[in-house]
Amino acid sequence: MSDKVTLKDMIQTPMNITQYTEQPSKKVGRPSGRKRNHIVTIYCTEEEKHILQKEANEKGLGLTQYARMKIFGL
Hints:
This protein is of the alpha+beta class. It has helices spanning about 5-10, 45-60, 65-70, and strands at about 15-20, 30, 35, 40-45. Helices cover about 40% and strands about 20% of the residues.
C-alpha cells in the first residue's frame, strides 16, 4: 500500500453523499422549436436535501431554483 492519492480515490464521492439531479420542468425554448434542458446537479446528503427542500418550500421555490440562489448568492 502506498500513501499516494490516486486519481480513482479523488474521483470517488463519499458514501453519504447523494447526487440529486432535477430535470427542469420548464423547457428553455427557442423560436425554432428546438428545446434545451438545463439540468442542475446538486451533491448533498439526504438530510441537507430535506433541509433545502423545506427552506425552498417556505420561499415557494423549486429545490433547484433555491439551491442555485444559495450557491450564487442571489
